[in-house]
Amino acid sequence: MKKYKIIALAMLACVSLKGMAQEENSVTGKVVDKLGNPVAGALVSIENNPLIQEVTTDRNGLFAITADKNHLLRIRTGRDDTKVVPVTNGKAMTIVIDFSGEKVNVGFGLNQTNAESTGAVSTVYADQIDNRSSFGVGNSLYGNVTGLTTMQKTGTVWDQIPSMTIRGLQTLNGNNGILLVVDGLERDNNWQVLNYITPEEVESVSVLRDAAAVALYGYRGINGVVNIVTKRGKYKTREINFSYDHSFDFQTCVPEMADAYTYASAVNEAYTNAGKSARYSQNELDAYKSGKYPYLYPNVNWADEVFRDQGASDIATLSFRGGSTKMRYFTLLNLQNNRGFIDNTGTNDGYSTQNKYSRANFRTNLDIDLSPKTRMQANIMGVLNEFSRPGLGSDNLMYKIVSVPSAAFPIQTEDGLWGGNSTWDGYNNPVALTQGRGYSKGHTRALYADMKLSQDLSSVTKGLSASVRMGYDNIASYWENYTVNYKYGMKSVAGWTNGEPATLTDFTGGSVSSVAGDNAKLDWQYRSFNFQMNVDWSRTFGKHDIYSMLLYTYKYDNSNGTNNSLYTQNAGWYTHYGYNNRYFADFTLMTSASNKLDPDSRWGLAPTVGLAWVLSNEGFMKNQSVIDFMKLRASFGIIRTDNIPADGYWHTTMVGGSSYPVGADFTGDGGWTEGRLPSLNGTTEKAYKYNLGLDMSLLKGLTLTVDGFYERRSDIWVSSAGQNSAVLGASSSYVNAGIVDSWGTEIGLDYTKKIGNFQLRAGGTFSYSRSKIIEMMESPQAYDYLRSTGKPVGQIFGLQATGYFMDDADVANSIPQQFGPVRAGDIKYKDINGDNVINENDYIPMGYNSTCPEIYYGFNVGLEWKGLGFNAYFQGVGNYTAVLSSNLYLPLVDNTNISQYAYDNRWTPENPNARFPRLSTETVDNNLKTSSIWLTDRSFLKLRNCEVYYKLPSSWLSKIKMKNAKVYVRGTDLFSIDSIDLTDPEAMGNNVYPATRSVHVGLSIGL
Q1: Cα 184 to Cα 206: distance, rounded to the nearest angstrom
Q2: pLDDT at position 1, please?
Q3: Rounded to a whole number, what is the distance in angstroms from the first to the last CA of the chain?
Q4: Helices marked H in 338-417 — which ranges?
Q5: Rounded to whole angstroms, what are the CA distances from 991 to 247, 395, 400, 551, 839?
Q6: 676: exposed, middle or buried (C-beta count within 10 Å: 0-12, 13-18, 19+)?
Q7: pLDDT recorded at residue 189
Q8: Tens digit of pLDDT for each residue in 253-310?
Q9: Across-strand partners of 43?
Q10: Which of 356, 796, 915, 1000 sits at 20 to 30 Å (Cα–Cα) from 128?
Q11: Quick one: DSSP state of residue 811?
């Protein structure tokens, strides 16, 4: 009987096991991104069930895990995108990491997806960053991320750090700079890191725009934050990638300067306009025109003599990425070099005078699970670069190329002496500066390191954890001066006989020197220390999700020199609440301090609230197939900043005063007098930020984000001088009285679709921002239209030109202009106030500002079929004004050159409706006033990047154990549509190098 009982129990157990086996099956599937590409190294786990071991996707995105039909799968990718989906039994699952599951990289260890976030955060990923072949990530961010205005800077490669703003000009005194962080950690204040981080090491760039997004950054985040997130390792994968890019670089819009005959004719015309006799005789004009005496009457195109047709660049990158279950790694080595546009640089033995740049970047990011509850992150980036230039930067080479007339002197005399004379000395000779001046060289060494330790403290109470992070930066630049001096001179004609030079004079100047002694020195150095500590608590109670964090941060900055140490601290409480994956709320309370502020007002409290409603998770949205995800957002917060009017503003300043006869023989000795009065009882500048946003994805491929914002910036430090009489006898103190309102909208659109072998991607970004000065303690003005109050920040004021004076009679019969004597061909202005005199009371607002465009946009389109693809990225700006203030438009004064454009568009009696006034070699104050003549539309639309590529078929690559391979031809900045006739709209001003365009050929392979 006992035997039968045992058999019965065994049979029952088998039936039970079989039933359990039917409940728990092996679920298989594939994880792909929104383009359909497999996601390798993603963690797949069972939601809220740690007993079932998590698995990882392989290189094809495939996984298999034991789960039943009631389980939820949680997928977390290598960049921390997260997706939770129910198990589908009976067939392989395809899980798409779409917009709602992408991580919002706010920093400080917060792990939120787009579905949970209440802040205005826009993100661009590696595939749209590493496609421009730029040396630094900053130059890969033109128009491809919503809300970020990035403007290009021209010049030598090592100086090409772009300018960035978020939501336009929001405050006074030029304090509109954004905060730049790397992996959530603030780096050097000089933005050098923006030039050092390569696009190849970047996973994503996030732009934090509203109060809910920037709250945790305290004083420094008031104008917005750009968070550069670098690549990290992946679980149970191994990737080796190599890429090489070679570019052919060309200068564009090099100003065309007048030849020698045109220049001499222009000078004679200017003398005639001023009532003087001609400077150049007919013999001299004929000599310039014929070119018969090139050493006496030269005709030198300085740009052609200094620059060669093209430069070149190379970028090579090798990276390793992967990991096991306990450790993940990403390691990168990047080498770059650039050879510039200087011609004939090998004329000296032992050295080149080329503009050269080379750099080596090394990065390692490690994630190590020291134990099941202890994790460590370690990040290190090292940079070594070297750059050299002909002569010194202070030689102002580009300025001299366009300002020295082609008729000034020959490149060299017949005797081999560098050209120069008493009017234009030899250090104005651009060719001598590039071939005979020697060279200077710089070295920069940078170390960026940080480490984070995270501890799960659930043994104390469920959901509790803590982390500590420390960072250290040290950047130093060294300069070596190997410049030399040289002799210069030329022969000049003192007399003519029968149309031929007869009498010559000889001029020489300068002296020859050689490099002597040790010329190396420290140019600048920067060091910083970061410390972050936070305690986190995360729990789920049914439909309620709660995350709370206590945060403390400290940062120390120091640069060489005196009074250059800065200390900032933040302490705060952040709480995130979610209900049923539908309703979310964030609350942040931060207090910050800075040693820049008055000791009595260094700490300030800043509360922020963010709300979100995921409509697509509501029941009434379930029975439709158009909208995949839809979320409404709203935020409000008070953000403070440590902007100050001057160092030590709370003290009285003392300045040099009149001398007193207290020396021997009653000679004078310097005295002191009271300068600026102390600024007492101050507070911090504050921003009251409001934001409404909509995030949507629909039709399985279209993503739309829309934000509208309003901000009031108050308590801005401004001078009280406008409210005080000069009888005060001292400079007025500063007061917290400035108020600026700003508002605008931001739109981001992205569409991806894959049908068979055909893939389409298109998208765009659009930002509009406008500001208005409400209060700035402005001095009283005679007329309201003269006031900057009530106008946008940076508003340009100018005189309205009505034309030019035609002749002396026109001058005599016109309304007097109180800007100095005028002649025929000078600018005639409009009498705005009708008082029958033109003076400072006739200035009116004109155009926009010349610092930051109000409209910034970009759009792209990409097509791919069976590996053959095409991408194009466009970027443009609007509501942007240029002031034509360089010598290219204001010629001849102080013996400067004239551009062909200025010559062709000058006023003459035969061309009374010309673009520019009459020529003059003297300063004509009337014509130099800011006016409608000198303002022009600076809007542009540029083709930033265009690429044709081919991805080799995987069937070929698998035979040689290769994962992917791509070859491409790529063009950058290929054309610009704009209204600037002489230069590129992003390369305006004196001593500004021309813009460049490049054609790249390259390849990338992955193992």
Answers
A1: 10
A2: 46
A3: 66
A4: 397-403
A5: 25, 10, 8, 47, 32
A6: buried
A7: 59
A8: 999 999 999 999 999 999 999 999 999 999 999 999 999 999 999 999 999 999 999 9
A9: 56, 76
A10: 356
A11: H
pLDDT of the residue at 634: 97
Residue 720 per-residue DSSP state: S
- What are 885-943's pLDDT values in tens digits? 999 999 999 999 999 999 999 999 999 999 999 999 999 999 999 999 999 999 999 99
Q: Are 731 and 675 in contact (CB under 8 A)?
A: yes
Distance set, CA 589 to CA 104, 519, 604 (Å): 20, 52, 11
Residue 772 CB burial class (10 angstroms; 0-12, 13-18, ≥19): middle
396 backbone dihedrals φ, ψ, rounded to 5°? 55, 55
Q: Is 210 helix (H, G, I), strand (E, B) or coil?
A: coil
Beta strands in 160-304 (DSSP E): 163-166, 179-182, 185-186, 202-208, 225-230, 237-252
Q: What is the DSSP string of 865-923?
A: ETTEEEEEEEEEEES-EEE--STTTS-SGGG---BHHHHHT--BTTBTT-SS----SS-
| Residue that has been written with the tokens 């206590």 in this structure | 550
Give me the residues of the chain with pLDDT under 50, please: 1-23
Q: Which two tokens stand for residue 219?
A: 């004083």
Classify the C-alpha dihedral 165-168-172-173 as positive or negative. positive
**CA 949/CA 987 separation, integer angstroms:** 30
Kindly provide the b/e burial profile for residues 776-786, where b requires at least 16 CB atoms within 10 angstroms of the residue's own CB: bbbeeeeeebb
| Structure confidence at residue 907 (pLDDT) | 96
What's the token pair of residue 758?
A: 């055909």
Nearest to 863 by CA among 850, 872, 852: 872
Give the β-pairing of 225-230 and 179-182.
parallel
- Measured between alpha carbons, how far is 933 from 927 in angstroms, rounded to an integer? 9
Residue 792 · residue 772 · CB < 8 Å:
yes
Name the token pair of 9: 């129990």
CA distances from 268 to 273, 278, 301 (A): 9, 5, 20
pLDDT given at position 12: 45
Q: With 0-12 CB in 10 A as exposed, 13-18 as middle and 19+ as buried, what is 545?
A: middle
pTM of the model: 0.92
